[in-house]
Specification:
The complex is a heterodimer.
Chain A (H helix, E strand, L loop, with lengths): L17 E3 L4 E2 L2 H10 L10 H5 L12 H16 L3 E12 L8 E12 L6 E11 L5 E12 L5
Antiparallel strand pairs in A: 1-4, 2-4, 3-6, 4-5, 5-6
Chain B lengths: L4 H4 L17 E3 L4 E2 L2 H10 L10 H6 L9 H16 L6 E9 L8 E13 L6 E11 L5 E12 L3
Antiparallel strand pairs in B: 1-4, 2-4, 3-6, 4-5, 5-6
The chains are: A alpha+beta, B alpha+beta.
Amino acid sequence: MSLTGPGNYYEDFTIGDVYRHARGKTIMEYDNVATTLQVMNTAEGHFNEDLMSKSGAIFPHRVNFGGVTIATVVGLSMQDTGENALRELGMDKIRLKSPVFHGDTLYAYTEVLAKDDSGQKDAGVVHFKHYGLNQDGKEVFEGERRVLIRKRGPR
Amino acid sequence: MPGNITERAKLLPKGNHYAVFEIGKVFEHHWGRTINAGDNSLFTTLTLSYNPLYFNAEYAKTQGHPGIVVNPLLVFNTVFGLTVEDLSEGGGPFLGVDQLTYHRNVYEGDTLTARSTVKDRRISEKMKGFGIVTWHTEGFNQRKELVVDFQRTNLVRIRT
């Protein structure tokens, strides 16, 4: 029995491949408000609807915390790009391209940018670029991610 | 409630504005946050973050960990969250993050604290009344070991 899938080891990623991840996620009030407050983010634009409905606010409604947008898009890709990861190494060039509101649905796409297995025998680093789109196909997020992924090894 | 209470009340404001962010200024952020099992489990499942290191203790032990590993994106989000009152509660959208590095694993029960340094600032040409500020934020565990660091860029209101 294996707890992780068979098709997402280091050897399975080819530079230049692009994936569309199967599941989307509708961002609900509990995703944004609960997570924003759980992580001690005190910016009211994420949890005070009255404030946002008044003139002078940048957005007309509470806006999804960008940290939740990032985590959701990377999360939607995780089974395919990190289920067999030994370690997440980092991210770079994260850009929040347009705001996400309650009720918007996020989808994730991933491109394989580079691979490097010079560091250790049983795993290698895969360099991904992730894209997050909303229900209208508008880009809301992009960012690069480096992950140390286990090798399947000799069968 | 006495009729004039809302008139007598003085606002106790929160957050900072553009003028405060002189390049090189350091903020030791408030509160800290102990990450418990419920935090990690809820965050990981709400974001569909399907690596069993983050939700299966027995699997994590087979990979050489003492128990469940805290989802690195929760580590990032929590360290980010701790910086908000000082850096960005004053208003202005979060634009991006660069050079995010996870230096060490975080485990359930670890306590995170945050520190930030102003790296850059300029007046926005596109958004009237806003500046663009970049901070370098570092997150530490209870042993003062660096667990994460990143550069964050935000729009910041020039005045309220």
